[in-house]
User: Fold this.
Amino acid sequence: MYPYENPDDGVTVLQMNSELQHAQLELLSAHCATHQLRLRYSADDLALFGRRDVLRKSAEAASALNEFYSAIEKKVPRTTPDPGSSPQPSSEQIEQAVEWLASFLRAQREHYLPAARSIGSQHRASMLPYFSSALFDRIRIVELHGARIPVPEFFAQARALGFEPPEISHMDSLTFIDVVVFNEQLTERSLFHAFVHATQIQVLGLERYAELWVRSFIKTRAHFTVPLEVHAFSLASKFLRPTPERFSVEDQVLRWVEDARY
Assistant:
């Protein structure tokens, strides 16, 4: 029994937060798609040449969401003061952070690999058109069923230096090279997203992947605007469209590498 359970409808805090996390994931996906739109087109171009009905509906939806969440935000008690301007890390600190991230991914892969299993035939069939069969043969998955991946130890070291690391507790999964660990129940969206990261690591190499992730996060200070994440969110959204578009994720990643978009 949860302390705020409503006996009339049986809604618990656990259920509420599960639905909140699902809504947040949808918002992150929309945020990523909008971020890419903003990078490629100016507001003037969108206003002049964009479909009026789509622009109007998008603006109305964004305004309604902003009003809803802003009203909630005003009611959330602040336990810490608003952070000031973030310090800029030195080149040595950036190199250290890249090493920390790469080492963490390697260590977690070794930790979870003994409990990992291969992808089921149902998920394999739905996603095989987008990924190589060799990737499916190599990747293993672990479902924690509500348990959480522990926060990396180097996060405390980063905070001691004055830097706030990314928030990972809300993430559905983390990709440790070729082992994907799911905090929550595995879904098609989260699995596809994780496979995109596995493909990025395969194409870029672990060290380059870690370097691009760290350098982008330092610039944006938000994990969902890191281009590696933006690409994973956007490709997963394309995969889940009512009329899905067939494409090769590896080709998409190679194109972003060639265009220096990461």
